[in-house]
Amino acid sequence: xxxxxxARIYKGQNGTSEILVEKGKIRQIGADLPETDEVTDLKGxxxxxxxxxxxxxxxxxxxxxxxxxxxxxxxxxEGIARWxxxxxxQTKEDARERALKGIREEVSKGVQFIRTMWMLTxxx
Length: 124
Description:
Radius of gyration: 22 Å
Number of helices: 2
């Protein structure tokens, strides 16, 4: 079990500054918690709940990098027109790799939950 001390806990009670973690899960939050073999001093760093991305199109993520996707006007209408061109050459493997890259990017920024809309159409 691991113990984190001197945490500034989001919406925590005054004096609540310790966290016990076992096998990657928070087991207890409070003050004067039991001693453990491993202790990490957070030095007043903020501990907050993970982020949630409530709207992400994983089938569209990272599609704007090719020449066929260039949106020179920056408008939604041109973006939609460019997407029409992009999806003509998209493969299942390409979509899968871009989706995984998007998920990794989200997780690296602290997102734990993603609600996705997947509307991919692949032509064979």
